[in-house]
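Q: For a teaching handout, I want to show students what a protein-ligand complex looks like in token form. Below are the inputs, and the small molecule is zinc ion. Please produce the holo structure.
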Amino acid sequence: MNRMHTLFAAILALAVASPLAAREPFTVGGLTAQPGERVSGFLEVPGGVDEGARIPVTLIHGTKPGPVLALIAGTHGYEYAPILALQWIRPQLDPNRISGTVILVHIANLPSFLGRTIYYSPVDGKNLNRVYPGKPDGTVSERIAYVITTEVIERADYVVDLHCGDGNEALRPYTYWMVSGNAKVDEGSRQLALAFGLDHIVIDTHRPNDPQASIYTANTAITRGKPAITTETGQLGQTEFKQVVMALRGVWGILGHLEMMEVLDKPLPADRVVWLDRYEVLRSPETGLFTALVNPGHTVAKGTLLGILSDLFGEKIAEIRAPFAGVVNYVVATPPVSQGEPLAMVSRIQPEK
Ligand SMILES: [Zn+2]
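A: Here is the structure, written as tokens, with zinc ion included.
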């Protein structure tokens, strides 16, 4: 090959390589994935007024361009089914088959997971899903929220916050569709909810609109103009396949809907969904023992007895009744309850339009 040929070959190689070369690496915190790479590591939450934490994440950076999807599990550390779903998904996501980028936040709240606590961090006693967008100089839950807001949510185009019934909650699977008033974002979120495939969807119009007081993980995305949903699949610390597979199937549905991967699952048609247009979380008036008298998924009338609250000696102190007719989304199914904590959630079925 003479010099002219060499030059020509080099130009040709550059031209062929350029679509790939144009795709930038993707960096989150101290982790960088090249196109076609799957990289796992930790986001560091530095120590401050209390101890620091680490957040295990995986970046799957596709060879082809596309959206950035963040999947966040383990905001509540006792919610195992979606945590396991992301562990199962990780090896199955082949960056060479993905258009775009997936950020897996495997366990957002490692202090709660390792401390085996429901609702609250064992370090600062706060609920991670009530402190968004977080603070760089707050307590550890607020600092975790700050890292997830700045490193994950602000980098993503779509966010799915994966929950389940907590360690004490029996739950019928459902998705929250949060309606913000931003029509474009709301329609994007609605399509995510349908793609996730659960047939009960709560229409939630009560989340704050202030991005600086977004409170909740998914709402932090929504108030920043990104479609997002909160999903609830699994319950009571259970880890059986049938509990884990619901979130797994939901994630495939979203990857297909966003055209990030070819999948067989199609979004659920809107008319297959039971839309729930009002909900109420019933909270315990006192500290004591709760005995549930209904199962999640049950249909109840206004006034149906949902459970009995008794004091620490077993004497009945309150009857908990449905505030309106609807469906029981979840109910506390283990005895201990503290004043002000949830006992059950009931939702009204949206009347036919
Ligand atoms: Zn949760």
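A: Two things your students might notice: Confidence is low (pLDDT under 50) at residues 11-20. The radius of gyration is 22 Å.
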